[in-house]
């Protein structure tokens, strides 16, 4: 990603934060983190020799592995995070998107059932930890072997999110029953996913998007009645290009 595109993402992030749109802020933050990590990523672990393919899909918290639900509930009972499953051979972990996020990272070994809740220091013990133990908390790259997973759990007042990194052989994504979409419909969904509600309306207006077009996407289960994308819509729109 070019420097100009990164600067545009950072500008959109400031706009989203000013508007209090935390879902969009989180998405933009992750895009920025991914782009920066691509530029500064450490070498792949020596045990990894293949071509990495990474897929990300959002799932309901209720569909997350039971060990992960338990780990979250033990830390923040009574709350429900957004959960993103990333299938990859290298877990690229970005830093917390703000200074106010409380982060815990949990590792899981499927062969033994062991849950390492102290895989890295929690927020509560971070200050007293040595720099080597702190490093992954603030972001890094970790190779994943079959049967091993890493969950990055971030929590703030109105921001609750889990990124679960699993080896591709350990997870089969739910089938995406996406309808056949026109290029225009793809652009509408990508625009709804990329921008704040106010700016999204401006962009859709510039392209003369009608209420009938939006209603058709709502009938497909991709767009909410009150605005914004459904979970299925967010997953479907990931690979589409938004209008500028």
What's this model, at a glance?
This protein is of the alpha+beta class and about 240 residues long.
Textual characterization of the structure:
By secondary structure, this protein is α+β, with helices and mostly antiparallel strands. It is built from 8 helices and 8 strands. The protein has helices at 3-18, 22-40, 66-75, 131-134, 183-194, 197-206, 211-219, 231-236; strands at residues 55-59, 82-87, 90-93, 102-109, 114-116, 140-143, 148-155, 160-166. β4 (102-109) and β5 (114-116) form a beta hairpin. The longest helix is centred in the first third of the chain and has 19 residues, at 22-40. 27% of the residues are buried.
Helix proportion of residues, in percent? 25-40%
Number of domains: 3
One letter per element, helices H and strands E, the order comes to: HHEHEEEEHEEEHHHH
DSSP E strands, number: 8
Unreliable spans: 40-51
CA(first)-CA(last) distance: 16 Å
Rounded mean pLDDT score: 76
Strand order of the largest sheet: 1-2-8-7-4-5
What is the overall shape?
globular
Structural class computed from helices and strand pairing: alpha+beta
Features:
single chain, 244 residues, alpha+beta, 8 helices, 8 strands, 35% helix
């Amino acid at each position: 990603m070019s420097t100009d595109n990164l600067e545009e993402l950072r500008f959109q992030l400031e706009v989203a934060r000013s508007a209090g749109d935390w879902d969009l802020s989180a998405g933009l933050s992750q895009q920025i983190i991914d782009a920066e990590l691509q530029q500064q990523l450490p070498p792949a672990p020596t045990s990894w020799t293949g071509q990495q393919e990474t897929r990300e899909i959002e799932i309901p918290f209720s569909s997350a592995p039971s060990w992960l639900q338990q780990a979250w509930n033990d830390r923040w009972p009574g709350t429900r995070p957004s959960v993103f499953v990333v299938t990859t051979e290298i877990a690229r972990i970005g830093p917390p998107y703000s200074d106010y996020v409380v982060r815990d990272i949990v590792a899981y070994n499927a062969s033994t059932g062991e849950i390492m809740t102290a895989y890295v220091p929690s927020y509560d013990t971070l200050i007293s930890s040595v720099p080597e133990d702190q490093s992954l908390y603030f972001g890094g790259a970790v190779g994943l072997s079959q049967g091993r997973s890493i969950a990055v759990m971030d929590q703030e007042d109105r921001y609750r999110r889990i990124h679960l990194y699993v080896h591709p052989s350990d997870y089969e994504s739910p089938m995406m029953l996406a309808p056949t979409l026109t290029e225009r419909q793809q652009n509408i969904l990508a625009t709804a996913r990329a921008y704040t509600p106010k700016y999204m309306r401006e962009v859709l207006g510039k392209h003369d998007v009608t209420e009938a077009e939006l209603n058709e996407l709502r009938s497909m289960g991709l767009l909410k009645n009150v605005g914004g994308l459904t979970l299925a819509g967010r997953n479907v729109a990931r690979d589409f290009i938004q209008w500028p």
